[in-house]
Design a protein that fits this description.
This protein has one domain (about 1-220): P-loop containing nucleotide triphosphate hydrolases (Rossmann fold), CATH 3.40.50. It is about 50% helix and about 15% strand. It has 10 helices and 8 strands. It has helices at about 15-25, 30-45, 50-60, 90, 95-100, 100-120, 130-135, 150-160, 170-180, 205-225, and strands at about 1-5, 25-30, 65, 75, 80, 125-130, 140-145, 195-200. The strands form 2 sheets. A 5-stranded parallel beta sheet has the order 2-6-1-7-8, with helices on both faces. The chain is globular.
């Protein structure tokens, strides 16, 4: 089974997707972290992020190792464990320049599809990002668009960051501007065909996971009926 979870920053898609994967015994892929890893690598190599060709070349050359174990997510870029480093505010502030680079998106989508294909024989995978259902895994058995209002998304993102890491104004700018930037290359704020939209504004994480797991079991039952 492939479960695709799309949504804007702070909607809770990472925590939800990881929780669903853990509960259902599936693998888990955070595609947003892949863009962050490319961002980290480009900065480490002193590449001008406005140089789209150079950044795209770096994304293709990057040796990126990804753990799809929902309990032990690890990202290793060119031999360096960047699991924590890619969450640094300096990465968050500029990752949109990477995420809106069409050649980088093409390269990472290729890698994402390969990871999804590799996961199929082992039972399946929960993949979260911004264009998973619409582009990367259009054949997913379950497609979810997870949304939340801006205040809820800001609150959740702030809880993930170290105290004082960013101001409220910087946080709002990152979330609102990131949505605006990414909307130029991804329709992540519009439900794809067959997708279920879940507004998580007033739901706890466990409640959202419950809903997605129920939908996954229903989708699996439908798929089994078709096969029989």
């Amino acid at each position: 089974m492939i479960i695709a979870v799309d949504g804007p920053s702070g909607s809770g898609k990472s925590s939800t997707a990881r929780g669903v994967a853990t509960r259902l015994g599936l693998q888990y892929l955070d595609t947003g972290a892949m863009y962050r890893a490319v961002t980290w690598s480009a900065l480490e190599h002193g590449i001008d992020l406005d140089d789209t060709e150079a950044v795209a070349a770096r994304s293709r050359d990057l040796d990126l190792s990804i753990s799809t174990d929902p309990g032990r997510g690890r990202f290793v870029a060119d031999g360096t464990d960047v699991t924590e480093a890619i969450r640094d505010p300096r990465i968050s502030a500029v990752v949109s320049k990477i995420a809106t680079n069409l050649d980088v998106r093409a390269e990472l989508r290729r890698r994402q599809r390969a990871i999804i294909d590799d996961a199929q024989p082992t039972g399946g995978i929960v993949v979260e990002g911004r264009d998973i259902a619409t582009v990367v895994a259009t054949d997913a058995e379950l497609k979810v668009l997870l949304t939340a209002d801006t205040d809820a998304r800001m609150s959740r993102r702030k809880a993930e960051l170290a105290e004082g890491a960013v101001t409220a104004e910087q946080l709002r700018d990152q979330i609102v501007r990131r949505d605006a930037d990414d909307s130029t290359v991804s329709q992540f704020q519009v439900a794809s065909d067959g997708a279920v939209e879940i507004d998580s504004t007033h739901l706890s994480l466990d409640e959202v996971i419950d809903v997605v797991c129920r939908l996954a079991k229903e989708a699996d039952a439908v798929a089994r009926d078709r096969e029989s």
